[in-house]
Specification:
Mean pLDDT: 96
Distance between the termini: 41 Å
Largest sheet: 8 strands, mixed
CATH topology of the largest domain: Alkaline Phosphatase, subunit A
Number of helices: 17
CATH superfamily of the largest domain: Alkaline Phosphatase, subunit A
CATH class of the largest domain: Alpha Beta
Radius of gyration: 28 Å
Bound molecules: tetrahydrodeoxyuridine
Length: 530
C-alpha cells in the first residue's frame, strides 16, 4: 500500500503574534488578520477545512472538514530556513547570524586566504547599488564584492568576465565551508553580473544553503526507503540533503500545478511544497491586496488538489513564519502558524488547540509512516486526528477485497420474500472480517439486514473496534446493483458502535466508493445526547 503525505507551506502566512513577539518588535503582527477582510480575499476551501476555527483566529464555521491546530515556534528565529527546519523537526536555539556592520576580520581573513583574492564593500547593501559602486574596482583588481542584507546571508558579486561563473560557484562553496558554527549564515549567494558600468546582474544567481545541523524528518524518511519530493525552494532550504527528487517552480500558481501533477505519480512518501510568492512578492512589499488575491488563487487550486487526493493521502497546510503586509515593517514577523490536516482518514473537526512547536508536524509525519522519531523534535498528533481505518495492519484486505467478501456473503442471503439479496463484510480495527447476509422471515418483521447480521456476529464475539464495512446487494439472479446503501436502522446501529468517520464502501467489487458514516447519517443521535 502506498502512503503519501503532502505538506504545503504557505510562506509567511502567520496567524497572529507569538507571546514573545515583543522581543522581535512584532507586537500586533497578524498576517492572516491583515488580509482576510480585503475584498480580494475569498477562500471557501480553507474556510471549510477550518482555517478560521483555529485557536485565536476567529470566525470559524460550524462543521469544519479537517483537523487543525495553532502552532508556536520554539526556535529563536523568524526566517524561512529556521521555520522549515522546525517543521522538519529541528529546533534552532540560536538565530542564524546577521551582520549589520559587515563581517568580522576573522571571516574576511579566512576568505582572503582560501581564495587568494581581496575583499570590497563588506556592508549590508542593495544588490544593484553594490555593483554600481564597486563594480569598476572589482574589474580592475579582481577583488570579491562581499556584502550582506538584513537576512542571514553572505553574498559575493563578481563580473562574469573577471571570475567565470563556475569559478565563482567554487569560491562560494569554499566560503560555505568557512561559514559554519557561529558564522553559519543561512545562505552564501553567488551574484554574477556582466556588461559595463553600471553593470547588470545575470540569471546565474546561485544559493549555497546551510546544511541542517541535526537529523530532520527527511533524513529519517529517506533512510527508511520513502520518497522525499521537493517542490519549490524546499531543496535549497535543506541544502539538497535527503531530497530524492526536486521540482523547481516559477511562482505559486506553477507550484500548485506541479504539485497537482505529482498527485498522479505513484510515489510512497512525502511531497514537501513551498509557495514563496506570499512572502517574497506580497509580504515583504507590504502588498495587502496582492497577498489577499494570491490566497484566493491558492484556494481555487486547493479545490482541484483535494479532489485528486487518494484515500491514503494526508495533506498538511502550514506556514514557516509571518510577514504582516499591513505593518510598517517589511521584514518577517514572529507569529503562530496554522496547521490544517486533511484526508479521508482524518477525523473532521478535531481541534488540537495551540501546540508548542511547528515540529509536531515532523513527529506526525514520521508516525504516519511508522518511522521511529529518534532525535527529531516534536509530538505527534496522529492518534487524535486519524480514524481507525488509518491504523489497519498491512495484512488487512483492501477495499476491493472487502467488497468481494460482501459479494460472497450476498450469495448466502435468505431472502425468499423480497428476493433482494444483500451481503456485508465488516472489517475490525485489527484487520479481521465478519460477513453477514440478510435473513428474512415469513412474518416479515423479524427480518434482519446483512449489515446488522455482520455487526451482531462481531459484537457477540467481543469485537468493539470497527474500521470499515462493505455492502453488496442485488435482485436474486441478477447482477449486483451499482449501489446498495444501508437502511436507516443499520445506519443507527453503526452510529452506536462506530465513530462518525467510520468508512462504508458501497458499489460492486469492480466499482466502489468510500463514504463516511457522517455523510450517510448527518446529525446523528447517539449516547452523547442522553
Ligand atoms: N436489506 C439489507 O439487508 N441491507 C440493506 O442495506 C437494504 C435492505 C435487506 C432487507 C430485506 O431482506 C431486503 O433487503 C429487502 O428490503
Amino acid at each position: 500500500m502506498s502512503k503519501r503525505v503532502f505538506i504545503i507551506v504557505l510562506d509567511s502566512m502567520g496567524i497572529g503574534e507569538l507571546p514573545d513577539a515583543h522581543l522581535w518588535h512584532d507586537e500586533g503582527s497578524n498576517t492572516l488578520g491583515a488580509i482576510r477582510n480585503h475584498e480580494n480575499f475569498c477562500c471557501p476551501n480553507l474556510t471549510k477545512m477550518g482555517l478560521f476555527n483555529i485557536d485565536g483566529v476567529g470566525g470559524g464555521i460550524e462543521k469544519p472538514t479537517a483537523s487543525f491546530a495553532r502552532l508556536g515556534e520554539v526556535s529563536m528565529g523568524k526566517d524561512t530556513t529556521i521555520g522549515h527546519w522546525e517543521i522538519a523537526g529541528v529546533i534552532s536555539p540560536e538565530p542564524l547570524p546577521t551582520y549589520p556592520n559587515g563581517f568580522p576580520e576573522e571571516v574576511l581573513d579566512a576568505i582572503r586566504k582560501k581564495t587568494g583574492r581581496g575583499i570590497l564593500c563588506n556592508l549590508p547593501y542593495s544588490g544593484t547599488d553594490v555593483i554600481r559602486d564597486f563594480g569598476e574596482e572589482h574589474v580592475k583588481t579582481g577583488d570579491l564584492i562581499v556584502y550582506t542584507s538584513a537576512d542571514s546571508v553572505l553574498q559575493i558579486a563578481a563580473h562574469e568576465d573577471v571570475i567565470p561563473v563556475p569559478e565563482l560557484y567554487k569560491i562560494c562553496e569554499d566560503v560555505r565551508e568557512i561559514m559554519q558554527g557561529k558564522h553559519g549564515v543561512g545562505r552564501i549567494i553567488a551574484r554574477p553580473f556582466n556588461g559595463v558600468h553600471p553593470f547588470t546582474r545575470t540569471a546565474n544567481r546561485h544559493d549555497f544553503s546551510l546544511t541542517p545541523p541535526k537529523t530532520t524528518m527527511l533524513d529519517l524518511l529517506q533512510k527508511a526507503g520513502y520518497d522525499t519530493i521537493s517542490v519549490g525552494k524546499i531543496v535549497d532550504i535543506f541544502a539538497g540533503k535527503s531530497i530524492s527528487d526536486s521540482n523547481r517552480i516559477k511562482n505559486n500558481r506553477d507550484g500548485m500545478n506541479i504539485s497537482i501533477g505529482i498527485e498522479d505519480r505513484d510515489f510512497n512518501g512525502l511531497c514537501f511544497i513551498n509557495l514563496v510568492d506570499f512572502d517574497m512578492v506580497y509580504g515583504h512589499r507590504n502588498d495587502v491586496p496582492g497577498y489577499a488575491k494570491a490566497m484566493t488563487e491558492f484556494d481555487q487550486q486547493l479545490g482541484v488538489f483535494i479532489d485528486k487526493m487518494r484515500d491514503d493521502d494526508l495533506l498538511i497546510i502550514t506556514a514557516d513564519h509571518g510577514c504582516d503586509p499591513a505593518t510598517p515593517s517589511t521584514d518577517h514577523s514572529r507569529e503562530y502558524v496554522p496547521m490544517i490536516l486533511y484526508g479521508k482518514h482524518v477525523k473532521a473537526g478535531v481541534d488540537l488547540k495551540t501546540r508548542r512547536s511547528y515540529s509536531d508536524i515532523a513527529a506526525t509525519v514520521l508516525d504516519y509512516f511508522n518511522v521511529p522519531q529518534e532525535d527529531v523534535s516534536g509530538e505527534s498528533f496522529l492518534k487524535e486526528t486519524l480514524s481507525e481505518s488509518a491504523f489497519l495492519p498491512d495484512s488487512a484486505p483492501s477495499d476491493a477485497k472487502l467488497m468481494e467478501f460482501a459479494a460472497e456473503a450476498q450469495k448466502r442471503a435468505y431472502a425468499p420474500y423480497s428476493r433482494f439479496q444483500v451481503g456485508a463484510a465488516l472489517l475490525t480495527a485489527e484487520g479481521k472480517v465478519y460477513q453477514g447476509c440478510n435473513i428474512e422471515n415469513a412474518t416479515y418483521t423479524p427480518t434482519i439486514c446483512a449489515e446488522r447480521t455482520a455487526f451482531f456476529k462481531a459484537i457477540s464475539e467481543g469485537e468493539r473496534n470497527f474500521a470499515k464495512l462493505a455492502i453488496a446487494g442485488g435482485r436474486e439472479g441478477e447482477a449486483l446493483s451499482d449501489l446498495c446503501a444501508p437502511c436507516g436502522v443499520c445506519r443507527q446501529v453503526m452510529a452506536e458502535f462506530c465513530s462518525p468517520d467510520f468508512i462504508i464502501v458501497l458499489g460492486t467489487p469492480e466499482k466502489y466508493k468510500e463514504y463516511k458514516l457522517s455523510e450517510l447519517l448527518p446529525e446523528m443521535f447517539t449516547k452523547k445526547d442522553l
